[in-house]
Structure formats: structure tokens, C-alpha cells
Design goal:
- The structure is a single chain.
- The strands form 2 sheets. This protein has a 6-stranded antiparallel β-barrel with strand order 5-6-7-10-9-8. Strands 1-2-3 form a 3-stranded mixed β-sheet.
- Strand 4 and strand 5 form a beta hairpin.
- It is α+β, with helices and mostly antiparallel strands.
- Helices cover 36% and strands 16% of the residues.
Length: 479
């Protein structure tokens, strides 16, 4: 399909008919007006937009400080926003098979009723709308498909980074769950096990997804494919690509990361296909002693800037700080503990998803806590000298990027030996913190008889650079 679209003179995308009151004309007129304003402000043309592989990432986010919030545009009324909500609520934008249609050709026209407009402008305005989650929430864009529009062309950005493609596609819809892979096969570039991903509708869904794990292990020589499991299914080690993966993805923008908790190693693995048992060689670091739930949504500006949301955040953060205090037997909390917590909650990355130093993250974390906590609680747990350091940070940048999504439960944890970490899934005391050879991130395993269940990946302060790589190796059987 990708070849067909790529050879076409132009791709015409049909959203559907218009409305009796002409919502399509209002919406498309608005898109033209907003995109004209944005292009003028940023000094780009429509042709320039076509040369960008990801308009949202490469243009909107990079220049967000130059742009006013959408609701500050004086040529748009509340009624006009409703027309855009209508347009960006079309199911067309959520379909897996549409991804190749849009990404394979640079000549794309979107048709709705009798109106038409260039795809690049639809993409640009969608990215502008989701630039600030507080705006999209307040103006009811949260339930539209702006995020889908702004990420669609990103999937074709790096066909070799196809795990990220499948991650993004997990939020799209299709009639057959195998099509999350087969419907994107033209975008996926693999070197080994090519035939395993070729469309074969005689295979059960689970086998298709299991084959994707095998191809990933063969192709990337790493265990990164397991960062896409959520620990809620059986077998626990096979990603369910048809279930929305709305959790922190460190490879979201295709960047390689420097973490090597097992040192420079390659995975050693085996798959018992008849029983769906995965064997991974690695080492066990420690077990979880304390854990507290949190949510990636805690870091969104919509939560930080609302007094009502702050009241919801305070008990959660007070519980987390009390747990840190309990593990350290010290109040106010020591600076080293707050630094480890800050680095863990941000997974070692700054607001632009780049690895950064502990000082930057700690300053932003302290500034964030000052924004959300009551004054007396803040002073109770945060040492005065660190509170002063927090003045150099920006609390609104901590934990970013945080999208306008309903995130699943994540966990902050402390191990028996005092290691701090965060996991993308629910963790409980007794869970094992393990590192597989060839991994970028440690994983949390839960004992189940003689075998294990994979709960999800984690960032652990003091473990990410191979500090424990000399521990005794063993084989983990995971079902």
C-alpha cells in the first residue's frame, strides 16, 4: 500500500460530508487563518512545512516560547473553536491504515464536504492546539484527535525505529488487531526475521505479536522491546500493540539513550513457543521495600495551574515524601535523597527528553514541589538550602513532556538497599529489580512460583551506568 501511495501524483484524504450549518467551511477557514499566523510568526512557508518529518516536534515545540497560547489569538471566538473541535473529532484520524496514506506522499489534500486544505496546515494547527495541555483541556480539545494528527507523519520518520512506530500506532484503531503490524508493514524496516512480520492472517494475534518480539531481539540486539509491556496480560513479556500504550516512552522521538545498566552486553534469550515462555539472562539487583503510586499526569501544566488539581496532588506527594523520610529516618529529607527522587521521576531526562545532570533535575523538582505543596508541608520536608536552590529551577518544566492523556498508574519505589526508582507500572514490595543483558533499562519482575511475570521497565538512580554489572548472572524464566 505504501508503494501505491508513494507513486501517486496526489493523495486525497476524505474526512466525510459537511454539515447543514457549514462547520467544515468555518473549521477549514480557521485552519488557514491560524496556520498563516503561525507561518508568519515563525518565518516558514507551506513548502517548508513539507520538508519537515515532524511538524509538531521540529517546529511547534522548538518554538513554543515564540508563540502565544491559542486562546490569545484575537481573531478566534469560542464558537469558532467548536468548529475546530468538530473537524478534529473525525474518526478518520485514528485509523491505522490511514497512516501509510498520509505518510507516503508529500502531496496531500484533505477534503471535507466541499472544502479542501493541505494536510500540512491541518497538521500544524493540531500541533499548536496540543502544545499546551492546559489550553486543550480548558477548551475541550482533550477528546479530539489532534494528537493523532500531529503524530501520524512522525511514524514514517525513521522506519528502522519501528518499535516506536508500533508504540504510537497502539492508540490507533483497526478492525483486526493484527493490522497494527500488518497495516504498517510498509513503514517497518527490518534486517533479520523479515518473513516473521509478513502478513499471514492464519496466525493468531498473540503469535503475530510474539514474532515482533523475536524480530526485535534479532534486529536491535537489545531488550528494548520489553519497555512496551505493561504487565497486565499473559504472557506478560509480549507487548499488546493493539492496546493504548499511554505511558512514558523514553524512545518517543527516536533518540538513542546512554543508559547501560548491564554494561556493554548483548541479550541472551530463548523463546519456548509452545508454552510462550521467555528466558532472559541477567542479574537480580534488589527487591522493592517501599512503593507509592503516582501518575505522569501529575506533571502536566493543567494540574499545576489549577487550585482544584493541586488539592488532589498534595496528598499523593505528601505520601511520597513521607515514604522517602521513612526510608531515610530523616526530616527534612537529605539532599541526596531528593536528588535521587528527582532523577527517578524524570527518568534522567530533561523537558526535551535529553539526558541531563542531577542538579538541573533537582532544582526543577524542588521548584515543582513548591508549586503544588502547601507552604508548611514544603518547609517540613525540604531543607532550607535546597529550597533556595529551587529558586534556580522551573517547576513547570519538571516531568515534561506530559501530554493531555489519562495515564495509567506508575510507581515510585525504594529498594531494601536504598535505591530509588520509578516504574511505568504498578509495583509492590517484594517485586524484584532485575537487569537483562543488552538492556537500556532495568525491569521489575514479580515472582510467580518458580517463574516470573514482567511488570514493566524502570529507571533506577545509581544503576543506569552499569554500577552493578558484576553481579552474578542467572536465567529468568518469564511467562
Amino acid at each position: 500500500m505504501r508503494l501505491i501511495y508513494s507513486k501517486a501524483q496526489r493523495v486525497l484524504a476524505w474526512l466525510g460530508p459537511g454539515t447543514d450549518d457549514g462547520q467544515e467551511a468555518i473549521a477549514i477557514g480557521l485552519i488557514r487563518g491560524i496556520s498563516s499566523f503561525l507561518c508568519t510568526r515563525l518565518g516558514v512557508s507551506v513548502m517548508d512545512l513539507r520538508s519537515l518529518s515532524n511538524i509538531y516536534q521540529d517546529l511547534v515545540l522548538k518554538n513554543r516560547n515564540k508563540l502565544p497560547l491559542p486562546n490569545h489569538l484575537d481573531f478566534i471566538t469560542d464558537e469558532m473553536w467548536k468548529s475546530l473541535i468538530w473537524l478534529y473529532s473525525h474518526q478518520y484520524f485514528t485509523r491505522v491504515w490511514v497512516v501509510q496514506e498520509i505518510s507516503a506522499n508529500h502531496e496531500r489534500l484533505v477534503h471535507c464536504g466541499c472544502e479542501k486544505i493541505e494536510w500540512e496546515l491541518v497538521d500544524l494547527v493540531a500541533g499548536y492546539i496540543i502544545m499546551e495541555p492546559a489550553f486543550s483541556t480548558k477548551f475541550n480539545f482533550s477528546n479530539t484527535y489532534c494528537w493523532w494528527v500531529s503524530t501520524m507523519t512522525e511514524m514514517a520518520r525513521n522506519p528502522r525505529n519501528w518499535l516506536s512506530i508500533l508504540y504510537l500506532a497502539s492508540t490507533y484503531s483497526c478492525m483486526d488487531p493484527r493490522d497494527v503490524i500488518y497495516g504498517l508493514r510498509g513503514l517497518i524496516e527490518v534486517s533479520f526475521g523479515v518473513d516473521l512480520l509478513d502478513p499471514n492472517y492464519k496466525k493468531p494475534v498473540l503469535e503475530v505479536y510474539r514474532d515482533s518480539v523475536e524480530v526485535s531481539l534479532l534486529t536491535f540486539h537489545s531488550t528494548d522491546v520489553f519497555t512496551y509491556v505493561t504487565g497486565n496480560s499473559t504472557p506478560s513479556w509480549i507487548p499488546r500493540w493493539n492496546e493504548s500504550m499511554i505511558f512514558r516512552n523514553p524512545f518517543r522521538f527516536g533518540r538513542s539513550l546512554p543508559w547501560k545498566p548491564a554494561g556493554i552486553t548483548a541479550p541472551i534469550w530463548d523463546i519456548e513457543k509452545e508454552n510462550n515462555i521467555l528466558s532472559l539472562t541477567g542479574f537480580c539487583v534488589d527487591s522493592v521495600c517501599f512503593s507509592e503510586s503516582y501518575n505522569e499526569g501529575f506533571f502536566s501544566n493543567a494540574m499545576i495551574e489549577s487550585d482544584k488539581c493541586k488539592r488532589l496532588l498534595r496528598p499523593a506527594w505528601q505520601g511520597i515524601l513521607a515514604t522517602i523520610e521513612k526510608s531515610q529516618s530523616q526530616r527534612p529529607i537529605a539532599g541526596s535523597a531528593l536528588s535521587a527522587a528527582a532523577t527517578s521521576f524524570s527518568f534522567g531526562l530533561d523537558e526535551n527528553t535529553n539526558p541531563t545532570n542531577d542538579t538541573h533535575l533537582t532544582q526543577n523538582f524542588i521548584a515543582y514541589l513548591k508549586l503544588v505543596l502547601r507552604k508548611d508541608t514544603f518547609e517540613e520536608y525540604i531543607p532550607h538550602n535546597l529550597a533556595e536552590e529551587g529558586r534556580h529551577g522551573d517547576g513547570r518544566l519538571f516531568g515534561k513532556p506530559a501530554w493531555d492523556f489519562q495515564y495509567p498508574e506508575s510507581s515510585f519505589f525504594i529498594t531494601n538497599e536504598g535505591l530509588f526508582g520509578c516504574s511505568v507500572s504498578a509495583v509492590q514490595p517484594g517485586d524484584q529489580l532485575c537487569v537483562a543483558l543488552g538492556s537500556t533499562y532495568p525491569m521489575v519482575l514479580r515472582q510467580d512460583g518458580e517463574d516470573f511475570v514482567m511488570r514493566g521497565y524502570a529507571y533506577v538512580h545509581g544503576l543506569m551506568n552499569g554500577e552493578r554489572q558484576d553481579l552474578e548472572r542467572r536465567v529468568f524464566r518469564i511467562h
